[in-house]
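pinging the channel bc i need a second pair of eyes. not urgent but kinda urgent?? the chain im working w is below, pasted from the shared doc
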Amino acid sequence: MSQNYFEVVVVGAGASGIGAALTAAQQNLSVLLLEKGNRPGGAGMFGAQGLFAVESQQQQQSGESYTVKDAFQELVDYSHHRVNESLVKKIVAESAATITWLNENGLATELVSNTQEAHQKHPRVYHQYIDKFNGFARLLARFEALGGVLLTETTGKEIVTDDAGRVTGIQILEKQGRSRLINCRAVIAADGGFVGNQKMVASTLETDSREFYSMGERKATGDGLRMIAQIGADTRKKGAFENHAASVVSQVDPKWRKPSIFTLTNLPLLWVDRAGKRFTNEGVVYDFALWGNTTFAAGGCYYYLFDEAFVAKITKTALPLTDSFERTFKNLAHKEVTHQIGPFAQLKEDLQEAQANQVAFVGETLSVLADKLGMSATELVKTVTEYNRFVKNKADLQFYKDPAYLQFDLQKGPFYAVKATTTSLGTIGGVRVNEKMEVLGMDGLALKGAYATGNNASGMYDTSYPTLEGVSCAFAWNSGRIAGQAVGNYLQDSGR
């Protein structure tokens, strides 16, 4: 590419970056879209299966009685109003138009049942991608047909401003290792936050970073946040993580995974923290955001427990419990949920592998198991004894777990414990923005020509990912489109 001037440069070609770049190009702006990796799409394509929307055409046609007002109130109530309510309202109000816009530009969606067990009585809000990868390709083809330029394996290094603080350019690093200045009027930072930057994550976490498993975009290393901070942006609220469920993660072999062990993690069995105490109603396993939050609050990990009788039973018999992730996979494939797990004929062997990977532990007695887990035997015995009483009486007097989940006591060894670690889909929040996605300085005023979208932007969430399904991906697409629209207005008003 020989061109050295574009009106707009978008850093990051995930959902929010593509949304911003295509929207800006549709306003006849010259747009350069940078992608750090060798393929565009980011977490919005490789991770997400769809997005949230309210009052879409699909919802109206299906008779869903859920409004922008309902969604707005649910989101601000969840966050105790510790959000930018103007931004939340803008995102929610724009969501239906974004579904239409995606469809018109080549990425169709369909309204499907909510994918989590806890949300079955909630009005449907999840719009699943149809033909996802080809749909993203069509969006990018539309962008390039409008004159947009996509550069892969290219990063943003530094935003340049003039004496009045207006954006005038960006220094980029191309894949050949060559640094180049691109003159521009606006920069949109859309590169996904900083979950791929282990040092930044460790400095921000409230828990031990070793008890944190990222399923997020590894290329999201905070480049956009760093560049924007250098021109005076307010980046003080960058400590929120999109906690999402928990998983069994081997430090011996991070790629190790056994379906049986993964399934057991998705059940409301007995959970204890590192002190050997119960810490939650394990039925929270059916809401991924809340499950992730309670794991995070417990210090980043916990152990789920069962005994030899449980192993013997599930080895031979299917159990009438719901795998919390089964609905996600079956629902998106339009298949029926079985509401049963197992049998796992090879569970004994799988547990031996899990022990070799230092994620499962076994003890002939609870005291021996507690010693292996480094916790008080007295505390663990007390916890199990009390839990057994809850199972017998079908009444959880501690955290009020549904009696239907009080099926398995722990009476006779060997006793098993499997470690589950908090997982995150990414960071949510970084730079303070207004409802136009304009970056705000420390004085609360907009920096001219600087925008942040998706996981780079604060204000949509307080301290955790809300429970409305698909909100994170919806925030990416909608914030990108809003930024793309706003930059056109800014350039016009400033004498394009």
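so Residues 309 and 412 are 7 Å apart (CA to CA). and The chain has a mean pLDDT of 95. — does that match what u expected or am i reading it wrong
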